Amino acid sequence: MTHRIIVAGLSVAAAMLPALAQAQPADYPSRPLRLVVPYAPGGIADLLGRVVAQPLGAMYGRALVVENRSGSGGHIGADAVVNAPADGYTLMLATISHNAAYSM
Predict the structure, then answer these.
(1) How much is the pTM?
(2) pLDDT digits over 17-64, tens only?
(3) Chain mean position to CA 92
(4) Per DSSP, what are the bridge partners of residue 37?
(5) Pseudo-torsion of CA 32, 33, 38, 42, nearest 10°?
(6) Superfamily of domain 27-102
(7) What is the DSSP letter of 29?
């Protein structure tokens, strides 16, 4: 019985987590977005970033600037995104290694 109560409590807590997220202002985005591709221009990651940027920019009605920050296996670009202001205007085309390295 105790196990069920714990699971039920955790389920309710997990369901409430989205309510804790900060909402973007109604005029978001009010300036161009930036998509950091942590690899060199001309490669498949750059191509994928540019293919994704076009419809994403159209969806938001703003320009989405693709910025290549290559070097150190992509960690220079990932570091630039981690140190960017947490305002929702900087996105990154990431791999699982970047997510694992910078989520800690």
Answers:
(1) 0.70
(2) 555 555 666 778 889 999 999 999 999 989 999 999 999 899 989 899
(3) 5
(4) 68
(5) -50
(6) Bordetella uptake gene, domain 1 (3.40.190.150)
(7) -
Edge to edge, what strands does the sheet with 64-68 contain?
64-68, 33-37, 90-92
Bridge-based pairing state of the strands 64-68 and 90-92: unpaired
SS3 87: coil
* DSSP element (H, E) containing 82: helix 75-82
The chain-wide mean pLDDT, for the chain, equals 80
Picking from 72, 96, 88, the residue whose alpha carbon sits closest to that of residue 27 is 88
pLDDT in tens, 52-89: 999 989 998 989 999 999 988 888 998 899 899 988 89
* φ/ψ (deg, to 5) at 38: -80, 30
